[in-house]
Amino acid sequence: MSELWWTNADTTEKRKGEAKAMSKLTVGMKRRIKRRLSGERPTIWVGKNGVSEDLLKEIEKQLKKKEMVKVKILRSALSENEARQIALKVSEQTDASLVEVRGHTFMLYKRHRK
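RESULT FIELD:
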């Protein structure tokens, strides 16, 4: 029984970084963003080169323009990382909130600064 508890504690430690990336949004905001982007096609694809500087610049450019971006990760980019790890890395580097990771697709949100 105690072994199970330690396993859960380990997974909780791993998810602290995820909680930081996703904590900026309320449940209502997440729901609104998911509803808005659910019918949209991804505007950015992560390919075999992974997350490059040019890709990050393009994501930031689209976030400035639309506040929301849908990103698709191709299988060739998933050789060493999971989709959630790539999504967390991108959200940290672009200073955006990670809304959701579903399969190989994730959504980012960054509020416009006035």
